[in-house]
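Following up on my earlier thread - several people asked me to post the actual chain instead of describing it. Fair enough. Here it is, all 494 residues.
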Amino acid sequence: MRCLVTGATGYIGGRLAPRLLDAGHTVRCLSRSAGRLRDVPWADRVEIVEADLNEPDTLPAALDGVDVAYFLVHSLGQADFERRDREAAANFAAAARAAGVRRIIYLGGPEPPPGDRPSPHLRSRAEVARILLESGVPTAVLRAPVIIGSGSASFEMLRYLTERLPIMVTPRWVTNRIQPIAVRDVLRYLIDAAGLPPEVNRGFDIGGADVLTYAEMMRRYARVAGLPRRIILPTRVLSPWLSAHWVGLITPVPNAIARPLVASLIHEAVSREDDLRTMLGAEPPLGFDHAVRLALGKIRDADVETRWSSASGRDAAAEPLPSDPEWSGGSLYVDERCSPVQAPPDRLWRVIEGIGGENGWYSFPLAWSVRGWMDRLAGGVGLRRGRRDQDRLRVGEALDWWRVEEIEPGSLLRLRAEMRVPGRAWLEMRAEPDGEGGSVYRQRAIFLPRGLAGHLYWASVLPFHGIVFSGMAKNITATAESFRRGAGQPIANR
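Reply from S.P.:
Thanks for posting it. Predicted structure:
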């Protein structure tokens, strides 16, 4: 079948597309920016079309000739996400019906127990499901609870809370029952649902083999990870709002995403039926401990295929790098550094591409850490998103508080800031040959202020730039040269 995958730059879509290919299907991926899929390993095996679910005129070409369309997008963490998702679902449903699509498959959230008032997140998911089910196109809605897999937001939240807090004072929702499901089971259900009979138009609960409370999930995670037993003290004092802020400080998941996730956990999420597995004749799903072992193995082997931070919202869409001061009203601030490097360009590039995450930013780690905490306190992403891969970067993926905007392998890395600043900021690093067997390192920090606050912000941080950016250039140069001498050990945080 010809399958359309929306959300192919996201956590689930980025894993589903190559597995559909392996199952023998033809795959078309929809993205607002085709460049975001340029560097994925399977890019040359799929058709990539540029379209926007909130711009209906762009959708007919994307859905033309499609048999099965996967709706895997949401605006979680963005302002007015319910309206955005409602409009996107209505546009997608109308375009799929007009194109003669045979089936829509949607991955949604669990339904709260009868009588519970759903959180805005789950209310939006249910509304999207209803719109698709009423589209006139046979639709399968898969209602998934917490997804356990390397790189998922729910798993990262569980992992960091458990690993960093041996004693936890927890909100009362940790006693709610949940039926977590392994990401590989979610993907298997998504793929196999394409073969459902055409008369099937309904929602299905999907879950793993175990029903646990969140407290039990933390204790069992600790056991699988080889950690001492965690002490969990539930209390009624911590509200979902306070819990979300605590999660935002302790884990890599920012407040904007932590809030709806935590709000969803106040409801029990246990399957009421197992009809999809019965219809598909699927094998029993994995248990919680097995799913955790698989996820930790992927993390240990640096083989995390996609992460929750892979997707960026509309507000973080790539913009052209401003290069003409007139373009910004004459208010473009630039900090440039240049250093000769006694090492070939490929050695220098190895250091540049490995920046961030555990390797750090090669300059004044305390300043970076403080700035990251300030961003977290302001509700931003901070530095904890880290890297998907320790050595390789792709266009569009998150790197601490940056987003990779452009890569020219061996020569250029350009990052766009996603921290909370009154303006737009970029960091650009280049490796150039010097014609004599060595190389030249070029570094450029660019800031486009927004209003008076932007100008004041730049003035306030300017005294630190001499330390931070000059130290970065110096240490990147020294690290590249140490590789050449055979030391092989980075000096990232010196």
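Confidence is low (pLDDT under 50) at residues 314-320, 323-329, 487-494. That should answer part of your original question.
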